């Protein structure tokens, strides 16, 4: 390994100081709702890249542009960007009303005394199908409040159950930003990452379900009925089944888009022009995420050449020894990035190149590395009180007339806590 240069890591430090500092100022100093998400993250990365360009005077600016171009032009980066855009178009086509149909369908057919457990299962399924935890919480949290109103269950318990279930799919879904970023950043197949990830997530989900049943059985509740249309979930099922079967992700997403468009048009849910507009807005919703991936790839290309990653790896090697220690180091690395950015996709994109070097250094497979990055980022993202998931849950609950704080909900985030236990058990007890 080459001699490391810790100063080369300065651009990452500059980005974190700007983003975290302004986020804390907006959120707590100026009391701006969703303050962390009012910061132009692209501008913060541009400043970090400027710092990187000002370093290492031995290279000309043109040479630095060439290095950045090589970093952005990597096959995995291009693949990631295309999947982001196609996944966005898919979500734009199918809409989100089908998610509520799934929820009301299950609440209709399953006895009301299991309502909270149903909320968890629904949130798991919907988030896995949609690939978004925030979208899942936006749709299912109001239903969770309805369940609490129709029963003696605690509102915080119902909402916390939905947040936990939403993180299940955020971690596992084939069209989740985090899965796309982790798999393409490490150069592994999504189906391989899913297989390893599933056996970490499943025990945590089952333990969560048992805990919820122990806490809620015996309570009286009123059945909740609402109209639903299950035909709209067909595209989600196709995408989920195709992903598990190992079909190429582009083929799977295109099948979902075509089937979703056909259903929306033939059932009269939307006009052709509106459908195209929805596809465009769905893809446009991925632009910032795509831009972040491009900027991080450019910045990390310079940091790598300057010796920053070598310095970081040398420091990590002193703290974490052996393959198991290396895996824990990867998890803590992406967790620290998530705490600083309050965005698990951005945390993975930043950690990807460093983790890739670590996987080679510690002899950890790409799919295992992708699994750890995705899982630990979702663990931290699911519990930080200033994360988008928590803020959306609080906002949705407030609109229904209930004032909850993040700390009220955090006591009922069983799934993220148990996922951490399951992840640590996988690292230290299960040989790869």
Tally of extended strands? 0
The Cα radius of gyration reads: 22 Å
What is the number of helices? 21
What integer is the average pLDDT?
84
**Largest β sheet strand count, sense and barrel closure:** none
Low-pLDDT residue intervals, each spanning 5 or more residues: none
Distance between the termini: 25 Å
Overall form: globular
> What structural class is derived from the secondary structure elements?
mainly alpha
What does this structure look like?
This protein has helices at residues 10-29, 41-54, 61-72, 75-94, 97-109, 115-130, 133-149, 155-172, 177-186, 190-216, 234-245, 249-266, 272-284, 287-306, 308-319, 322-341, 344-362, 366-383, 388-399, 406-410, 414-429. The protein starts with 9 loop residues before the first helix and ends with a helix. With 432 residues, it is mainly alpha-helical. The protein contains 21 helices and no strands.
Keywords for this entry:
432 residues; mainly alpha
Element layout with pairings:
Blueprint: H1 10-29, H2 41-54, H3 61-72, H4 75-94, H5 97-109, H6 115-130, H7 133-149, H8 155-172, H9 177-186, H10 190-216, H11 234-245, H12 249-266, H13 272-284, H14 287-306, H15 308-319, H16 322-341, H17 344-362, H18 366-383, H19 388-399, H20 406-410, H21 414-429
Helix pairs in contact: 1-2, 2-14, 3-14, 4-9, 4-12, 4-13, 4-14, 5-6, 5-7, 6-7, 6-8, 6-10, 7-8, 7-19, 8-10, 8-18, 9-17, 9-18, 10-18, 10-21, 11-12, 14-17, 16-17, 16-18, 17-18, 18-21
Write a short abstract of this structure.
By secondary structure, the protein is mostly helical.
